[in-house]
Amino acid sequence: MAMRSRRRFARVGRALVAGLAGMLSIAACGSSGAAKPPAGSAAGADAALDRAIRRAVAVPGAPPAIVAVVQRNGRRALHTAGTGTVGRLVPPRLDDRVRLASVSKAFNGAAVLSAVADGRLALDDTITMRLPQLSGAWGPVTLAQLLGHTSGVPDFSREPRFLEALKASLSEAPPPAELLSSVEDEPLRFRPGTRYHYSNSDNVIAALMLEAVTGRSYAAVLTARVNRPLGLHDTSLPSGATIPTPFIHGYDVSGHGQPEDVSELFAAGWTWSSGGVVATPGDANRFVRGYVAGRTTDRATRAAQFRFRRGGSEPPGPGANAAGLAVFRYRTRCGTVYGHTGNTPGYTQFVAATRDGSRSVAVTANAQVTPTTDRAGFRRLRQVWTLAVCAALAHR
Length: 396
Prior knowledge:
alpha+beta, Beta-lactamase, 8-stranded antiparallel β-sheet, 12 strands, 34% helix, disordered N terminus
């Protein structure tokens, strides 16, 4: 393998180990629904967000672009700086596609919890009940524990065998069930329900359970149960490396020279239900509004979903993080929102909404920025997330 290819794969491997594509949240701020807006004006909050975005893309090694969708009730605004294609003046647009990385886990949660609401699944269904072929030591793990990252199932994306398989076939992924092959004989890391540990295996198993009870492919179920009901016309779950056009290009900015385009470096099937969804910033915003407001589930299931414990998304969202079922709570200085983060080579994502779905944000950076890869850069990006939340919650 050429030196450049080895370096590129090493970066991909580190990215996947860090969270496999970074691969959303709810505890009530009172029972009324939307978080109480801060005292600042919307105009002032918008201006502060714009300044922070410009600063975040202006430093060496920064993402080439940041795009933030901010919606206050029926009023939606796009805040951007930078370029969606390095070497060209291409401002990122609302309807350009991006890889959503671990925000895909919220889509998985929406599909799975819709099946819980209509009785196809139950939160206390175990792996033994729905996937006997995966039983063994994992058998007692419940669907709720999978969605809440308290299962103890080892994370396949951290295994050397998985990384070797990825290295050998970047552009072609195995069938989803085979993603777990590197850990299928391993014991649980802890007794289910006793600890929180973010694991990409959890969402793969939950999606396999969904396929088992519906008799349909996960992609078809996602379209029927999430994309159509929420009006997501530019959202898909590709299996290959190609992103439907037009798209915001994603870059590796860790080197000292020109950013390297890694938009289509590896097949989305390597992350599947844990990180493979492709959508536009506009669709990501529409999704989180409907998801957090409970449009894909029922009241009882949503109440269980919104019970929180200590635990953060990867990368950490703004403010104090807590984990529910396929959703995270972010308590910021401007108020509380619920959503998800994600990162993958070329992209870092944050989506969130108030509990009633009336105010929301969707922020994309077209480079992978994490606390471990770029501490200062992530601090700037996290400030953008916080200011986006403040803008969404601001007075008119």
